[in-house]
Amino acid sequence: MGELRLEELSASTIVAVNNMSLKPGQEEFLSPVSYGIAATVVNPQTSWQRVVLDGDDVVGFISGNFDPDFPQEHFRSVLWRINVDADDQGRGVGRFAVEGLLGEARERGMSHVNVIYEAGEGGPQAFFHRVGFEPVGETEYGEVIAETRL
């Protein structure tokens, strides 16, 4: 693994993000990447989207939103999406991406970051726990709301 870096999502990286592969069973826990990318168009001031590059290769994608005025507290500072290409999972790419998002949250004056996910075998809960998120509630749809304090 080379040196990882975060770059803003761009026209030159979006195709690679859309073509990232998942491990079997992971697709049931993710909506299509295009849903997450659309958030930038809707909320350009509050949306934060980055690709993780290893050299010239896109190996991950992370999306967050920082809106201190959002009516629902758990959506004010939130990690919306994280994808790491199947071949690159387990190498620290996801942790690197989350650390970048948490740094951005600190710079924007946020006190915490939430993540909302569906629990289940093969789901993301173990990863989110490893990077510091702890369950604090659930949505009206039964999804887990987890939080890390900054």
UniProtKB/TrEMBL annotation:
InterPro entries assigned: Acyl_CoA_acyltransferase, GNAT_dom
A family per Pfam: Acetyltransf_1
Record domain N-acetyltransferase: where: 4-150
Molecular functions per Gene Ontology: acyltransferase activity, transferring groups other than amino-acyl groups
Protein name per UniProt: Acetyltransferase
